[in-house]
Amino acid sequence: MNLRSTALGGRRHRPGRVDASAIRQSWLREVIKTWATTVSLDSGRFKLVFAACLVASDALHARPGGGQDYTKLRFADMQAVFTAMSRICRTTDDELASRSYRQQSFGCFMEIVDFGRKTDMLTGMPGSFDRDKTLVLPPEETSEDAAGRAVPEPVIAQLDAHLALMGVGFSYGEMEPADIELMMQTAYLVLRDTGRRPIEISSLRLKCLEAHGDENTLIRDNVKKRRYGRKFPITRETAAVIRTWQARRRQLEVPSRSQKYLFPSITDRSGIAHMGASLANAMREWVAAIPVLLSDELDEQGNRLPFDRSLIFPYTFRHSYAQRHADAGVPVDVLKELMDHRSIVTTMSYHQVSLKRKREAITTMRKHTIDRSGRPAPFTSTTDYEAQSVAVPFGNCREPSNVKAGGKACGIRFQCAGCGFYRPDPSYLPAIEEHVNDLRADRETAKAMDADDFVVRNLTDQITAFTNVADTMRDRLRRLPQDEREEIEEASAVLRKVRATRDHKLLPLTVIGKETPDAC
């Protein structure tokens, strides 16, 4: 092929050859060859188009039939190609390529398809295998660390409950399925627990841990800022997860260039020596495989709505880490160092979101509190809600000694629906519903154990009382105008998130630098 050089003068400095065997579909190879010899183009343009077709070829190869017969391609196949294009990463640091590059790559592939149709090389290709207005990438965020993109803690809890599905059925070179699953699960847990950027996790060295007594330190490279060998404190549990994988990893045969990495690349032919976009791909498949994933938002009947699974990808766990610590009251200067933010303004955004959301949510919710009998029992002010009550598992409690003890001195073991100091509000509905289900399971267990009647009767009475509380709140919500219901649902989500992080076990907050004590 006679390609113009991108250099001044348009002449190539050396002849170029392209191995088209990497394109798995014969029809696509032939169209590319004809296109390259027919259209006047420079080498840079050809490289861009060829790279896009490689991505499309791999995506089609993973589809039923491998994309070998172009007359059988459908819109679902085009969606698979677009999805693959949307996940193109930079080869330098494994972060997503720019939106414009990914969208341009999809356009390059479509240019080849259009050429094949116009030249009758693809006669019979279905019209459904074509562009569509839905195949557009979302706008890029102005700041990758902007607050507000965190995966909610209750959703993370649901992900953790289905951790065993992570990596199941995912292909990773010659690695055995059990090893793939453990590797992907380890990568997720470290990502979740440390809040590091995905590239910092995927590029961890095999020897990435240091231990001094009970203190464990993760050694990682801040690739984005080119600061290498940085040290970061982690919990004993996170260190144990890493050590388990280290022991398995040392027994594996991995590509020669991946020997020093904790998470190796698939093959020696990979663009990078450690795990790249595979973590994002495995996570996407894992999230899609979870049967039910619920948000904190409620429908008109008070049922939790499904969570938008497209909002879960590796980088969002960095946001979750930051928001979790901000909600827990970690000082902004400490959080800035933990997050390695360039500006404290970015870190402050998490604290501002936390405080503002909480105040607004309490202002809304204090008016919709009831007592155990379902009678309205609003708090007189936001201060009254916070200072004169304490959050317990199924609602607020106003019993003075329990308030003083931070909710840890309940005299009747959290049988809240039978207590005169009980003050639930709609934000507790999911917790109450879950507790009712647990009580029903306990009652069946008690019956199977031939427990005394008073045990079964106590469980039944609790089920009835908590059910009445939940039904009363739902009825009150149904009678409210739509806009007020939506306001309460939003406030409920915020307060549940605050409560979910209240007792969360924080990471050690000692910031350790390799050379300077104020950097991590």
Secondary structure layout:
Blueprint: H1 26-38, H2 43-61, H3 75-86, H4 99-118, H5 153-161, H6 177-194, H7 198-202, E1 209-212, E2 215-222, E3 227-234, H8 236-249, H9 278-289, E4 294-298, E5 304-306, H10 316-327, H11 332-339, H12 344-365, H13 382-387, E6 390-392, E7 395-397, H14 400-404, E8 422-423, H15 429-448, H16 453-478, H17 482-502
Antiparallel strand pairs: 1-2, 2-3, 4-5, 6-7, 7-8
The coarse overall form would be elongated
Number of extended strands: 8
Helix proportion of residues, in percent? 40-55%
Q: Please give the count of helices.
A: 17
Overall mean pLDDT: 83
From the N-terminal CA to the C-terminal CA, the straight-line distance is 51 Å
Q: What structural category arises from helix and sheet content? A: mainly alpha
Give a short account of the largest sheet.
Answer: 3 strands, antiparallel
**Radius of gyration, CA atoms, in whole angstroms:** 28 Å
Any descriptors?
single chain, 520 residues, mainly alpha, 3-stranded antiparallel β-sheet, 17 helices, elongated, disordered C terminus
How would you describe this structure to a colleague?
This protein has helices at residues 26-38, 43-61, 75-86, 99-118, 153-161, 177-194, 198-202, 236-249, 278-289, 316-327, 332-339, 344-365, 382-387, 400-404, 429-448, 453-478, 482-502, and strands at residues 209-212, 215-222, 227-234, 294-298, 304-306, 390-392, 395-397, 422-423. The strands form three sheets. It has a three-stranded antiparallel β-sheet with strand order 1-2-3. The chain has a three-stranded antiparallel β-sheet with strand order 6-7-8. It has a two-stranded antiparallel ribbon with strand order 4-5. The longest helix is centred in the last third of the chain and has 26 residues, at 453-478. The chain is mainly α. It is elongated, with a radius of gyration of 28 Å. It is 47% helix and 7% strand. Mean pLDDT is 83; it is low at 4-14 and 503-520. It has 17 helices and eight strands. α2 (43-61) packs across α4.
